[in-house]
Amino acid sequence: MKRLLLFTVGLCLCAGLFAQQNESELANKIDEYAQQVMKTWQLPGFAMAVSVDNKVIFKKGYGVKELRPANGIGFQGVRFDECKMTQAGVKPVVNNPGDKINTTTVFQIASISKSFTATVMAQLVNEGKFKWTDTVKNILPDFQMFKNNDYVTNNMLVRDAMLHATGLVSEAGTYFGNLGYDRDETYTMLGLLEPGFSFRSAYDYNNITFVICSKIIEKFTGKSWEENVRERVFKPLGMNSSTMNADGYANSKDVATPHDYQYIGNGKSITPPLYGDEQALNWLTVIGPAGSLCSTAEDLIKYAQFHCNNGYIVNRDENGNIKDTTFVMPRKAMLPLHRGYTITSQDSSMVRLYGMCWFIEQNHNYRLLFHTGTAWE
Predict the structure, then answer these.
(1) Same domain, 101 and 118
(2) Is the Cβ–Cβ distance between 116 and 233 less than 8 Å?
(3) How far apart are alpha carbons 197 and 70 in whole angstroms?
(4) Pick from 206, 227, 248: which residue ends a domain?
(5) Domain that holds residue 152
(6) Residue 66 within a domain
């Protein structure tokens, strides 16, 4: 039995939990837990969905899309009506105070986007376009990793771009987009940075190496990273409300306003809304394959089922009866995505590794695959 728990800010897959509980009991416990999370963390709101054995047993939205202060002033003193256009050339997201979140509300899912990029890459590997163990330099002749470092440049494998062990220190280059640089310029600047540690010697989470993946995808398909995600993942899984980048997020009809989370001590926190350029939507587009997807609980539960099933989803009618299945990619192509490569932490109770865009934790009771997402807000 598989159990899958999805938040709009995090995605988890694990086996063997709650196997003996009936659906209604489990749904009630999940609802109680979600309400406690909302209270403890003092959140504006969120949405979630849970699937057991390919059947969605719970989905619900909590809270509001925008927690606007009475004076209309959000993070950094910006008013909700101050900025008509953001740096990205789109209108900032603003909601009416009190608008409720539901399971079709769009959120930025940030680093969960990485697994979508890896899924597209896995499809191309399955099609024989390239191998995980091909060198990036052989595919992209203009590739340069680090300043005056031919060893990493010539020996970096395709899969290395997604495993956070290249030598780039945590978050190096992540905020180039906030300085006005675009995705192509970020790719070029990989060759200007200095490593913080030896190649493949340690784990340190980074975002900008995923622009390498987008370049590889574009070379072998003749289409953009965005087009590939839409055609290869969104469309076959029926993720009809999912989108990406600044324009996709800002133009969604049912969308949550970004908020900043600040812990102020004594068990208290505040979550001021972000307005205008504080929403950093240009950054969203530049970070692209590492973190620009925007989705809903309704869509993401399909994506989670797809990974639990290693390549397909089960379609049900309005009564919950199985109609048919939607096959997207073969199991042999999916399995490398769920294999751990880089150790991130370990102790006597568990070992946690990073695979191709999933954290993979093995403890005494079960195996857990998960990924969280933190956007600019």
Answers:
(1) no
(2) yes
(3) 48
(4) 227
(5) 113-227
(6) yes
Tell me the C-alpha distance between 320 and 312, whole Å. 17
Q: Is residue 233 part of a domain?
A: no
- The C-alpha R_g of the chain, in whole angstroms, comes to 21
Q: Residues 39, 96: one domain?
A: yes
The neighbouring-strand residues paired with 324 are 315
Q: How far apart are CA 122 and CA 132, in angstroms?
A: 8
Residue 3: what pLDDT? Answer: 31
Those residues with Cβ within 8 angstroms of residue 57's Cβ, 6 or more apart along the chain or in another chain: 23, 26, 27, 50, 51
Q: Among the three residues 187, 206, 227, which one is the final residue of a domain in this structure?
A: 227
Domain count, the chain: 2
Strand partners, 60: 48
Tell me the two tokens of residue 9.
């800010």
Which tokens is 188 given? 């070029």
Can you tell me the mean pLDDT for 80-89? 91
Contact assessment for residue 80 and residue 276, using Cβ atoms and an 8 Å cutoff: no
| Rounded Cα–Cα distance for residues 116 and 123 (Å) | 11
HSE-CB of 153 using CA atoms within 13 angstroms: 18
For residue 248, with 0-12 CB atoms within 10 Å meaning exposed, 13-18 middle and 19 or more buried, which class applies?
Answer: buried
Amino acid at 102: N
What's 237's DSSP letter?
H
Question: Would you say 140 and 219 are in contact if contact means Cβ atoms under 8 Å apart?
Answer: yes
Q: What is the pLDDT of residues 185-240, one digit of tens each?
A: 999 999 999 999 999 999 999 999 999 999 999 999 999 999 999 999 999 999 99
Give the DSSP letter of residue 182.
-
Same domain, 366 and 247: yes
For position 168, which CATH number holds? 3.40.710.10
